[in-house]
Structures are given as C-alpha cells and as structure tokens.
Amino acid sequence: MAARERIYLDHAATSWPKAPGVVEAVCAYLRDNGAPAGRGAYSESLDVERRLQRLRLDVARLIEAPDSRRVIFTFNGTDSLNLALHGLLRPGDHVVTTEAEHNSVLRPLAWLAAHRGVIVERAACDEVGRVDVDQVRRMIRPGHTRLVALVQASNVTGVVQPVAEIAQLARAAGADFLLDAAQSLGQWPVSVSELPISLLAAPGHKSLGGPLGTGLLYVAPGLETRLESTRQGGTGTRSEDDHQPDELPERYEAGNLNVPGLIGLGAAVAEFTAATVAATRQHHRDLTQRAIAGLAGVRGVRLFVPPAPQQQVGVLSLTVDGYDPQEVAATLDAVFHIQVRAGLHCAAGIHRAIGSLAMGGTVRLSWGQQTTTEMVDAAVAAISEVATSV
Length: 390
Ligand SMILES: Cc1ncc(COP(=O)(O)O)c(C=O)c1O
Hints:
Blueprint: E1 7-8, H1 20-33, H2 43-63, E2 71-74, H3 77-88, E3 94-98, H4 103-116, E4 119-123, H5 133-139, E5 145-151, H6 163-172, E6 176-180, E7 199-203, E8 215-219, H7 259-270, H8 274-295, E9 301-304, E10 315-320, H9 325-336, E11 338-339, E12 341-343, H10 348-354, E13 362-366, H11 373-388
Parallel strand pairs: 1-11, 3-4, 3-5, 5-6, 6-7
Antiparallel strand pairs: 2-8, 7-8, 9-10, 10-13, 12-13
Helix pairs in contact: 1-7, 2-7, 3-4, 8-11, 9-11
The chain binds pyridoxal-5'-phosphate.
C-alpha cells in the first residue's frame, strides 16, 4: 500500500517545508563556507557578514524600521521576548498585558513578578480571544505603567488584536509598547514607523519561512539606553573592553550567531515584499474560510472563530464533542497522516476565556504558504469522519 502523503498543518508551531531556496542556502553555507559572522577578515567571513547585513536590511524594510542596526538577531521568539522583558523591566515596574498571551510572555513576567517585584496585570479577552481594550485602558496608569505587552495575533484562535488602539494608549500614558508578532510577521502587515512600537519580537521560523533557531527583536530609537543586555560576551569588536559594547546590534548579540539558520532566513526574507505579505494573508484567509465552511455544519464540531474573517490569521481552533483534542490529533496523524497540534498551545489564559480549558484545549490547524485547498479539504473530510463516528 502506498504511504499517505504527509499533510502538515502545524505552521503556527513552525513552518514546513521550507522553500527550496532556503534549504539550498543553508546546505551551501554549511558545505562551502562555514565561517562565523563578524569575527574574521577572510573572504568567507566577510561574505557571511554581508549576507547578515542584507537580512537586517530586508527585515527593517518589512517592518518599516528606520535603521537596520535596530534589528537584533536572536534564537527564537521566546529568546526575543526574554531579552525585551528581562532587559527592560526593573523592580517595582508596572506592566499591563493580556489573557491572550503566550507563555513566552507570561512566564518571563511571572518570573519577574516573583523575583524582581514587577507588578503584572492581565486584561481579559472575549469568547474568541479578542482583548478588551477598555480594560487595558483602565489598567494603564499614566506616568506609572512601564510597559504594555500584547500579542498581534493569537496562536490559539488566530484573532488579530486591536494593536493600533492599544499601542496608542500605551504611548499616551508614557509606557513602552511590546508587540509579540510571532503569529503575524510575514502574514500580516506591521509597521514600526506607523505605530508607536518600542519593541517587536518575532521568530524567524514561522511565517517568515526561515529555519528553527532564528528570531529577531526590533528596538526603537533611544530604547537601547534603557534596555539592558541580558547576555554578555564576545562580539568580535572592542575586544580590549571588559564591558559589552553599546553599539547596535552588538549590545544584544553576544556570542556566535546561528549563522546557518540566519543564512536560510536571509534566503526566505529576500523574496518578501509588502505584496508577499498581502498575498499570504489572502491565501490564509481563503483557506480558513474554506475550512470553516466545510466544518460549520458538522455535528459535534465546535469552531472558535472571530465573527469577521478579516480579523484572523491562518490559525483555526476547534473541538470535537466526545473526544479529547489529543485523541483527535493522534487519529488524524495515525489514520490520515494529517499533522495538527492539540492542547493548550502554551496559552492557557485564552482557553479559559473561550471555554476550552476544561476540555483540554483545542485542536489547532494552521496554514503555510504551501498549504493547498486539497490539504484543507482532506483535513475537513477527516475531522468530519472522526466527529460523526462517535
Ligand atoms: C504568540 C507566540 N508568541 C511567542 C512564541 C514563541 O516563539 P518560539 O517558538 O519561536 O520561541 C510563539 C510560538 O508558538 C507564539 O505562538
């Protein structure tokens, strides 16, 4: 019997397959170059340095950052968020965040609350995970709140948050604004020059299409005077100085970078323009609407979707009556070779709000650039079969 085609619908965890150009760039670097960045005057090292500069410029262009040196390379979205939160917050600081956040925001904040006396308040979200702006407004203390931290799009329901409104509230109160763009960068527009975004954190391995082990943090002009480095070490510059250099990006990039991963990310992002983001957004919207239409009438299937399709990235959560989400995911893989994620997706707060915590969370389907309508139809048919077989 021929093996079933693998249908990978877990792009919200990490995108796969990577584009052929990405795979080729990583392989070619490992095979033919292998040099570190910023540490040698020989041609291969200089070549790597040039390519990383190119990547910084491409990311800066994508997010409309004023200066590519403000794009810091990290190792994943969590690493970027840890640098932002641990680097910025001081004992006694007040932070407003939300129930829709990922543990990569909530856990560093919980640690800072327990060990550094940071005060954290979380605004509620509604039954699809959309944050209550009025509650955020009430929680922000003008002149006192240090930071407002918000996810741009939920990794559970895909709902896109009212980022502009909340960023403006933060600015009006004199607070910094941290945007977690893990589920949006590459499939939803974001501009750090249009909105008052102090810090933007994102992985390179999700919608941007780079390899695992890549991430980035944008640091707004002036913020580097308040954002401490959280790791110190070699930068290949000012080696006579015991202290971490103040220059960007070296201030935050101690130790060798993940050059193979960043070379792959460079190949992925080189092709990215605003038009790519718009096309990806439309592609995801079409797939989401197709899946919703296919599953809407199926007995026992409950969908957690925002009322307006224009408020959702390519992430769709559902439950199936009579089944634990883990059972559904295991059956989809074992019987249909369809790979999805089940559980709380590292974001318990939003499950509390949407009513799926007691059921063990949701089954999550998420799309990538290479997801086809046939793959979505296969998932709809398989889920329908599971639901109606109870
Ligand atoms: C909303 C959100 N924030 C942060 C992260 C953490 O990103 P990473 O897995 O690259 O550490 C994720 C990952 O799933 C996420 O969905």
